[in-house]
Automatic annotation (TrEMBL):
It comes from the Eukaryota. InterPro entries: F-box-like_dom_sf (IPR036047), F-box_dom (IPR001810), LRR_dom_sf (IPR032675). It comes from Cryptolaemus montrouzieri. This is F-box domain-containing protein. Residues 27-73 form the F-box domain. Pfam families: F-box-like.
Length: 511
């Protein structure tokens, strides 16, 4: 529904009674709605739409500029934020429109100046979340006069540049950020041949860790210079650490993991997708003594022996993502069931685990499928709808299901029966992804009935991702006719993940 649809009350009719008790009709226009109601309606609009509403009349302008509508502000237009033409206008916005109500702000490189940061520190005392985007920077502003910075920040996200050194800026803010609980450092994560590029350590992690002793969640994403020494640095000073993510930091080998768990007794979540973990380092970790509940080792090339050793010794894993691992085979799964403890598991992703047989997966799900909230068995040509049809009655608690492969198959997927089975067996499903190639999907003229069933039975369904094709168009049209406009999406615009089930998922979100 667009902004005009939200506000279109001009033709609303209400019934009132006159003095004689007879009912008569009275037209209610939007001008007669209380300001509080209008303010609530405006809260559903984006800031760009709110600015458009401000042009309608003086009353709407006054409501549009209410600071309650400006608690979370993005000033990065390329990521759905507002475009600010000048620093002077931004300083005006901070003073007049944002004020004490501001809780979250995103700033692009051109707006990160000492005057803006001073104004935010002075006029926005309740600012707790900040994103600073330096990713496109070729040169920093002069921060030699920076004397003030928001002091109540709990969450800070810094998008790093590959070539700009941050120390001149960072040493000015160290004294103001010791209350941080959540830190995101985002690299560029570009696929470039190492011999063709020179890697710079653009931010001094060793100094940063000394200024942030209260961190609970650390996310180092796709940073080409981050290695095991940086993990060791954070673990030496952040005793509150609960969640550490180093996804796509290719220099991380795991050599300091043993020390990490010895120091960080509260660490419950470790995400290492796309790192260069070495099996011998993981086998040195005292897994049986740690409190780890959530683990992502996708695409890390670990050996079968190290995987068995780790899963047997981990006391109570609830979340495991172990896709794209040649070493994850039937013997690993069998050893985990027989000698380990998968009884607490609620989320499992085995994407592209080609060395796992259909029979081994079936036996595991027969025993533990009933407890799973999320299951990913995608990217495997030998796992088709026949296995899913067999195990879906077991997956009654599933909220997230990821199935299929985009590789063309020699068999057809009977998608009508599959959708019907999902609807009847997984009533609390929230997110589904079917990755099969459109050419492999077989459906009939009665497809609408199966789609109707899943739409009616799975009322909590938020996302249904499909490969772009005729079947996608049919499903999308069906949901749109029922006013569920945002549920059906293509794989190119939306991918489903078990990450939604992480205990710290909300803290790990970055834009």
């Amino acid at each position: 529904m667009d902004s005009w649809g939200v506000l279109d009350l001009s033709n609303a009719i209400i019934g009132v009674r006159d003095d004689s008790g007879r009912k008569k009709d009275k037209k209610l226009t939007i001008e007669k709605l209380p300001d509080k109601v209008l303010l609530h309606i405006f809260s559903y609009l984006s800031h760009k739409e709110i600015c458009q509403m401000a042009r309608i009349c003086k009353k709407w302008r006054q409501i549009a500029y209410d600071s309650k509508l400006w608690k979370n502000v993005s000033l990065r237009p390329e990521i759905s934020g507002l475009h600010v033409n000048s620093l002077e206008f931004l300083l005006h916005l901070v003073s007049v429109r944002f004020g004490p109500s501001l809780r979250y702000i995103e700033l692009p490189i051109e707006l990160i100046t000492h005057t803006v940061l001073h104004e935010l520190a002075n006029k926005c005392p309740n600012l707790t979340h900040m994103l600073l985007d330096f990713s496109t920077a070729m040169q920093l502003h002069d921060f030699s006069e920076l004397q003030a910075f928001p002091t109540k920040l709990k969450y800070m996200c810094i998008c790093l540049s590959e070539v700009i050194f941050m120390e001149g800026f960072m040493r000015k803010i160290y004294n103001f950020i010791n209350g941080l609980e959540i830190l995101h450092l985002l690299g560029t994560y570009e696929k470039v041949e190492e011999e063709e590029e020179e890697i710079y350590e653009v931010i001094n992690v060793h100094k940063l860790k000394s200024a942030t002793p209260n961190l609970r969640v650390i996310n180092l994403y796709g940073i080409n210079f981050v290695d095991d020494s940086h993990i060791d640095a954070f673990s030496s000073n952040c005793i509150q650490l609960e969640c550490l993510a180093v996804n796509y930091c290719s220099k991380v080998t795991g050599s300091t993991l043993k020390t990490l768990f010895q120091r960080s007794r509260r660490l419950k979540c470790l995400l290492m997708n796309g790192t260069s973990l070495k099996s011998e380092y993981l086998m040195q970790v005292e897994w049986e003594k740690c409190s780890l509940l959530e683990l992502d080792i996708t695409a890390t090339d670990l050996s079968t022996e190290s995987l068995q050793d780790m899963l047997i010794r981990l006391p109570g894993l609830r979340f495991l993502s172990a896709g794209q691992l040649n070493g994850f085979n039937d013997s690993v799964l069998r050893a985990w069931v027989e000698q380990g403890n998968p009884r607490n598991l609620v989320a499992l992703d085995l994407d592209s685990s080609d060395n796992l047989s259909e029979d081994a997966i079936y036996k595991f799900l027969c025993k533990h499928g009933h407890q799973l909230w999320g299951l990913g068995l995608s990217g495997m040509t030998h796992i088709t709808d026949s296995l899913w049809q067999t195990v879906l009655p077991i997956l009654s608690n599933a909220k997230i299901l990821i199935m299929g492969t985009q590789e063309r198959l020699g068999v057809n997927i009977l998608v009508d029966q599959l959708m019907d089975s999902i609807a009847r067996n997984c009533p609390i499903a929230e997110r589904l992804e079917l990755r099969w190639d459109p050419e492999n999907l077989r459906f009939s003229d009665k497809s609408q009935k199966a789609i109707d069933i899943i739409r009616v039975k799975c009322l909590k369904l938020r996302c249904l991702s499909l490969s772009d094709g005729r079947y996608y168009e049919i499903v999308k049209a069906n949901f749109e006719r029922a006013d569920r406009m945002t549920v059906v999406r293509t794989l190119t615009s939306c991918r489903v993940s078990n990450y939604y089930l992480l205990l710290n998922y909300k803290d790990l979100i970055f834009n």
